[in-house]
Threonine aldolase (Nitrosococcus halophilus), 1376 residues
Amino acid sequence: MSPIRINLYSDTQTLPTPAMRKAMAEAPVGDEQRGEDPTVNRLCEVVAELTGKEAAVFLPSGTMCNEIAICVHCRPGDEIITDRTAHILNLEGGAPAALSGASIWPLEGSHGVFTAEQVQQGIRPESRHTPRSRLVCVEQTANLGGGTVWPLETIQSVAEVARTHQLALHMDGARLFNAVIAAGIEAKKYTAPFDSVWFDLSKGLGCPVGGVLAGSAAFIEEAWWWKQRLGGAMRQAGILAAAGLYALEHHIERLAEDHRNARRFAEYIAEIPGISVALETVETNIVFFDVTATGLSAVEISDKLKSYGVLIGATDKARLRAVTHLDISQTDIETAAKALREIC
Amino acid sequence: MSPIRINLYSDTQTLPTPAMRKAMAEAPVGDEQRGEDPTVNRLCEVVAELTGKEAAVFLPSGTMCNEIAICVHCRPGDEIITDRTAHILNLEGGAPAALSGASIWPLEGSHGVFTAEQVQQGIRPESRHTPRSRLVCVEQTANLGGGTVWPLETIQSVAEVARTHQLALHMDGARLFNAVIAAGIEAKKYTAPFDSVWFDLSKGLGCPVGGVLAGSAAFIEEAWWWKQRLGGAMRQAGILAAAGLYALEHHIERLAEDHRNARRFAEYIAEIPGISVALETVETNIVFFDVTATGLSAVEISDKLKSYGVLIGATDKARLRAVTHLDISQTDIETAAKALREIC
Amino acid sequence: MSPIRINLYSDTQTLPTPAMRKAMAEAPVGDEQRGEDPTVNRLCEVVAELTGKEAAVFLPSGTMCNEIAICVHCRPGDEIITDRTAHILNLEGGAPAALSGASIWPLEGSHGVFTAEQVQQGIRPESRHTPRSRLVCVEQTANLGGGTVWPLETIQSVAEVARTHQLALHMDGARLFNAVIAAGIEAKKYTAPFDSVWFDLSKGLGCPVGGVLAGSAAFIEEAWWWKQRLGGAMRQAGILAAAGLYALEHHIERLAEDHRNARRFAEYIAEIPGISVALETVETNIVFFDVTATGLSAVEISDKLKSYGVLIGATDKARLRAVTHLDISQTDIETAAKALREIC
Amino acid sequence: MSPIRINLYSDTQTLPTPAMRKAMAEAPVGDEQRGEDPTVNRLCEVVAELTGKEAAVFLPSGTMCNEIAICVHCRPGDEIITDRTAHILNLEGGAPAALSGASIWPLEGSHGVFTAEQVQQGIRPESRHTPRSRLVCVEQTANLGGGTVWPLETIQSVAEVARTHQLALHMDGARLFNAVIAAGIEAKKYTAPFDSVWFDLSKGLGCPVGGVLAGSAAFIEEAWWWKQRLGGAMRQAGILAAAGLYALEHHIERLAEDHRNARRFAEYIAEIPGISVALETVETNIVFFDVTATGLSAVEISDKLKSYGVLIGATDKARLRAVTHLDISQTDIETAAKALREIC
Ligand SMILES: [Ca+2]
Ligand SMILES: [Ca+2]
Ligand SMILES: [Ca+2]
Ligand SMILES: [Ca+2]
Ligand SMILES: [Ca+2]
Ligand SMILES: [Ca+2]
């Protein structure tokens, strides 16, 4: 089989660029869990500033960002309200229950975006018999929803309901900057209503490892206890943080290119007979498409694409997901789309 | 306000009869957690026989029966598949996550009854990212579904899917004998496909305290460790078990009367303008009815009923739930229905 | 083998007396988890009064009293400071870790009683690396310590250290009234420094089932959530609570007799060649004795005693534990001691 | 205050060397959680080979290695037997209880090393009341014990007791290679009896981040589920693994130099009046010393040392701990010792 040359599997596949590698190799470092790594410290300051929070903590993955936030906000028996497609519900190994003893009440949102009214209905009545509603979690952008951008007004109305009922608010901002670039709204505006928020460095931003979680100083102090407990406290992690600082300077604006490429890809393949794609949902760098009408299964199409050197993953029997990122050029998009046309 | 004379709030409200009290007062007892209470031992033997299992353990509540079963079947990170209306999801304080670290994947069943196909779709794919599907839980009868009886064939097809995927099967049989009497199918037939099953003594059977959990000898041995850990190991519990033995002898057949009363009540109130009741779902001793069209809220109606000495609880803004049981006569039913007609 | 006529295995073996059974059989009852059981309510009021706390909750066992208190006081990662012989560490199935995620730091006390200085040394320094010291637990009387009474001054000095470090204080008062009677100090004095306290109804007090946990109104409200979650919420539990009310009226003063019997037994067997008993530690109703010098193992002696109709349990290779209670008369003590003399 | 030039705080303070940084910058990388990072894969193969196990997994910290092993071996209610000075008990934030629901039964070993007989005594009897003994954990070298090397025969006799009682065996080999070099015994011999073992890359081996956990293929498959759940699954982690491969080639043999330096330091300061050091325990790169007789507290001495540019941490009121590593030369040792002589 030909090697994969065009990897649309996920934006987590991004490789560090030579310039990013150079920044990492030259980074001044120290013991980050003693607060002595200057590069990690700098990254945390920058992220706190970007998200408008008092403090931030560097962690080895986005999953750990989510799970630590949940551990800090929730006690055993508490319940989290989020979308049925949420990463914390579907792709973190059941960690909210396993680590925090917290349940999840899933809402039936639209492409991963739910409404204030749905939150209202999902809040438990006062009763010792029920789980205790405690946290609302918003995923920006909504990954399994199709890279959907949460509109600022929706966020604000959801936040208002949460506040009224003394619920905490957490943003899983894995792809926060895709929303920032797609909507032209600065990060701080999106994150303002949240008690905690994080974004991933290793997805569209192109870093090899890590995410940064931000919140109040008290929240981050508690998060540090969990960072130690879960084994997320590292040593000379400035090597990794240096990539983050580089990415925040050089890789945010260029996300617009990923969005243009996703759009191009979606529009191109929408013309292929048998492929169905909801163009209105392609807002950022993710394109879900349905291949039922081709007579081939999603896995079959994924396998055939590999022989063209193209990797696009099947997410279920009928659907595939393509994700654009900094290793994907406009030409790659055209090549991938043509391969798809030949197959279907 | 007049005292409540007709208590349709729940079948948990049943009071021990004089004959049951006498049986309790005369019960031979011993230290049950050392296996030396003859009355508890006898009850466990009878329940094991009734449910067709190797062994059984007496516990202070149905919630503990469910939660111990989940603790034995699941490890942290595992996922339970059940109906969105399930007691374990809505009315046990988030205990599956809090005590076992287990998540719940809720299915959208019909009146609390889901299909084999829905189970199939709810099973997670093989992936280290997801929770691990581990247990299917069936509630017989489905309380918040309206006292619905799970048909034997539905149980068997659900069990087949579970077996195919190496999932364990648990029956929350809180009102198992209501199903047995309503359908004329013996308990053993319903429980045969399950790894664990329990039924409640303190609901329709009229005992003051307790439930009995049954399963294989190995399962019950593990359940005993959790009984100790959760504080369910008691001492001279034969006092309580004596009520259970009495109820199994005298209070099962009479559930038919509760079902007739529920049916009468449902048919009567279905005629009241503004009240809506899905008669086809009234299979056992529970009647949910909607009062939207009366112009009154459920709470308002519940409050007005109290002045007639009738207690029927509001379960949300528009619905109330009436439950018949051994302290409710046909006359009580007629009185309650008339009160409702006067109010609406 | 002859039946056991003299059961010194534990004071949990006490059987309800005819008068207690009568009180139970006649008790007015209701749904205790809805706050409607008048007998349970009365018992909780009496216990709150006796212990000088705002509120109390009835539970099916002492283990549940301890574990609920720990669940309320601790969050995952917290640490409990207590004696190495403590019931919560040795005899509750690892529940503090299993249910609360709390660790235990064991102190090497003297006969189950530790000092303020030991607590001071057991408190963790401020550091994100360590567990978080959170709760000090005192067991009155200290069961595996030999039924030792915690002196009031020791309690007060331990409490002072705990307060200085913002630690919560819990009393496992399983045999609190044995201390009250032995020392002539009222319960309220012992319990005053504690945030939570419980005592057992089913040990020396002679009830079949249950313990009562007391604390501030806010503490008890939280305890109720855990009572539901663990399955300790019962229905017409007044049947059991009636025994508790009876015992509080009739079975406290008579504990003095159990203490005299334990003393008699200890003094008698101290004379038997090969048996060693630390007479100065026999303060209440528990007598540990060492049989190493008899040349027989503790289990062998326990087995031989059974043929005399006497039950005394071996607690390890060399030691046995005898516990006096309301089913044990002075004659029984003499018979048991004589049997022991014949055997050794 | 003068900057720290001689950092004896911990071997975790080691900075990556230029050659190590170069290896990292040039590492081929991929998505490690999809099994596609060639450098991570290579590191895992090398570690599996070195430790004689079927498989290995790369993790962001030693704490995560320990905690994942515990999560895999233990279920809630299980108990771990280890030394009272163990890292898992004292320096991982109470994670065994918080994440696994497991308790720890601490043994009073000698400098962190316990005996087979102590393990035997620490195993719980068969009883539903107690925690369930499940895992024995050995720390090689014993950090808080003073860098003590576990003798091979002690390991083997401890393992035999564990096997006899069906307990699992885990080695916290944070400084395994210090033992290997000090004793001249190859890693594989030490690790042979263990079900799971890990060593740290970021201590004496000089890497910035990470540890590697090894065991059977089935154990590592389970460990991967927990790696996802805890947020230890990274992306292009080959950057970090490259440092590990470099260290395994270049930084093992040189640990002998760290041991000579520790020895020199210990012998030098043993001569200083008021300083007490147990020379026989200085087997590797860690030197604990007592300063009680100087009339100064440990913190005072630590502070004074800083003004000489020397960092040695106080571990309690009377003791300090100095740790040698690859950034510490023989001259540094002499300078530090002289500073100490001037201060005391
Ligand atoms: Ca990347
Ligand atoms: Ca989209
Ligand atoms: Ca009842
Ligand atoms: Ca004693
Ligand atoms: Ca009793
Ligand atoms: Ca290092």
Notes: Chain C has a mean pLDDT of 97. Chain C has two domains: 18-250, 254-343. Residues 24 and 239 of chain C are 5 Å apart (CA to CA). The longest strand of chain C covers residues 132-139.
